[in-house]
Inverse folding.
């Protein structure tokens, strides 16, 4: 299972960006999909997550500004980021947890995308 993230870039404060992350490979089921971020010299932190049923969870620092969504048919998770602030500058990583299968049978997986850089200029 692999993830391909896109949508990062440079933006001025107050602007908007939309990140996408598509999963590919042998996937039986996708459970949770999430976005994390890691700023320079900081630990990776959860930004938002969305469960298979659509329930969402947001970090306090993005509530009201970011929206996570998913398209199950496309196996894609999105992060709409509005009212961006300089402190949102970070590498954003998608994470997908689900179930795969091979000759040995079913097994769980958890994979990370390659990261996409978001730079917010003041």
């Amino acid at each position: 299972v692999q993830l391909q993230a896109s949508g990062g870039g440079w933006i001025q404060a107050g602007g908007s960006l939309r990140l996408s992350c598509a999963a590919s490979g042998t996937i039986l089921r996708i459970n949770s999909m999430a976005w994390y971020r890691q700023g320079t010299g900081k630990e990776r932190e959860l930004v938002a997550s969305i469960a298979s049923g659509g329930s969402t969870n947001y970090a306090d620092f993005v509530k009201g500004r970011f929206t996570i969504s998913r398209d199950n048919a496309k196996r894609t998770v999105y992060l709409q980021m509005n009212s961006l602030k300089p402190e949102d500058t970070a590498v954003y990583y998608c994470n997908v947890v689900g179930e795969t299968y091979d000759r040995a049978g079913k097994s769980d997986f958890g994979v990370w995308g390659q990261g996409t850089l978001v730079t917010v200029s003041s």
Remarks:
- The chain has a mean pLDDT of 97.
- The longest strand covers residues 90-102.
- The chain is about 0% helix and 60% strand.
- The two ends are 37 Å apart (CA to CA).
